[in-house]
Amino acid sequence: MDSDPLIRSYPDIGEKAFGCKGRALVSVFMYLELYLVAVEFLILEGDNLYKLFPNAGFKLAGLYIGGKTGFVLLTALVILPTTWLKSLGMLAYVSAGGVSASVILVGCVWWVGAVDGVGFHEDGVLLNWGGLPTTLSLFTFCYCGHAVFPTLCNSMKDRSQFSKVLLICFVTSTITYGSMAVLGYLMYGEYLKSQVTLNLPIRKMGSKLAIYTTLVNPLTKYAVITAPIATAIEETFVFRDSRYLSILVRTVIVISTVVVALTIPFFGYVMAFIGAFLSVTVSMLLPCLCYLRIDKSARSFGLELVFIVGILIIGSFVGIIGTYTSIKQIVKHL
């Protein structure tokens, strides 16, 4: 983006590096990744609401809808109005609630273990090589925000502060992810489920607060994740500035993610697939390749080139092994 002030989005970077084919490749991987992350949010909501209210249900057009299906539909109805906001500046205030929710969630899980009696005494195999492909895929997923970085940067009043924003975001994310991983393992060991909130004793106040806090995150981030997809679709129409078109496009996106979430409701395995196949490509492989193509000086042999090639090799390994493992698990559980 520093090399060309006309670059406004991630696909623009792909076009700058490899022309129209580069733009198309980046767009496909980027939008598919964002789309499946939105699907994950709905699965997360359905799982945790079902944990809180296992017997809840409602009637729609004479049909009884209960369980996770009902909660996914209900979540979509609540999220839908937030997707109609076109300004990322407005969405930033909504998303800030999600950041606070993440910090509160870690505190709640710690409270359940330290105060509510669960404890931190679970023993288990500290290093399980069989789970390494899935683990690496999940790690990659945790840092897959690159697709929206250019859009967010251009939405800032002071773009010069973006590097500081990224530093704070990655440090905060690493601390919260690491804390949650350690707490979950010490509390439940190998019995830990894909979401720690599904393990927590439901009658404890700390557990309820943790689950309610978990529910806040998707509600605040769904619109930010789907905004680039909606914008890309809207720009293909002649009436791209039409408010009615914007609402229609964003509504269709929400409906389609609901369908996918109900078809493949496996939170952990879908997350592993996104991390291995899409996040590795979008956040590791494509940025390195585009950088090498745009900046000729980076191709000169040196420490920087060694690091870049190392990232490409590791990313390719994680992508191939992780994608195979995650698809195998999804097919097995369908």
TrEMBL record:
<feature type="transmembrane region" description="Helical">
    <location>
        <begin position="270"/>
        <end position="292"/>
    </location>
</feature>
<feature type="transmembrane region" description="Helical">
    <location>
        <begin position="56"/>
        <end position="79"/>
    </location>
</feature>
<keyword id="KW-0812">Transmembrane</keyword>
<keyword id="KW-0472">Membrane</keyword>
<feature type="transmembrane region" description="Helical">
    <location>
        <begin position="132"/>
        <end position="153"/>
    </location>
</feature>
<feature type="transmembrane region" description="Helical">
    <location>
        <begin position="245"/>
        <end position="264"/>
    </location>
</feature>
<keyword id="KW-0813">Transport</keyword>
<keyword id="KW-0029">Amino-acid transport</keyword>
<feature type="transmembrane region" description="Helical">
    <location>
        <begin position="209"/>
        <end position="233"/>
    </location>
</feature>
<feature type="transmembrane region" description="Helical">
    <location>
        <begin position="91"/>
        <end position="112"/>
    </location>
</feature>
<feature type="transmembrane region" description="Helical">
    <location>
        <begin position="165"/>
        <end position="189"/>
    </location>
</feature>
<keyword id="KW-1133">Transmembrane helix</keyword>
<dbReference type="InterPro" id="IPR013057">
    <property type="entry name" value="AA_transpt_TM"/>
</dbReference>
<feature type="transmembrane region" description="Helical">
    <location>
        <begin position="24"/>
        <end position="44"/>
    </location>
</feature>
<dbReference type="GO" id="GO:0006865">
    <property type="term" value="P:amino acid transport"/>
</dbReference>
<feature type="transmembrane region" description="Helical">
    <location>
        <begin position="304"/>
        <end position="327"/>
    </location>
</feature>
<protein>
    <recommendedName>
        <fullName>Amino acid transporter transmembrane domain-containing protein</fullName>
    </recommendedName>
</protein>
<dbReference type="Pfam" id="PF01490">
    <property type="entry name" value="Aa_trans"/>
</dbReference>
<feature type="domain" description="Amino acid transporter transmembrane">
    <location>
        <begin position="4"/>
        <end position="327"/>
    </location>
</feature>
<dbReference type="GO" id="GO:0031090">
    <property type="term" value="C:organelle membrane"/>
</dbReference>
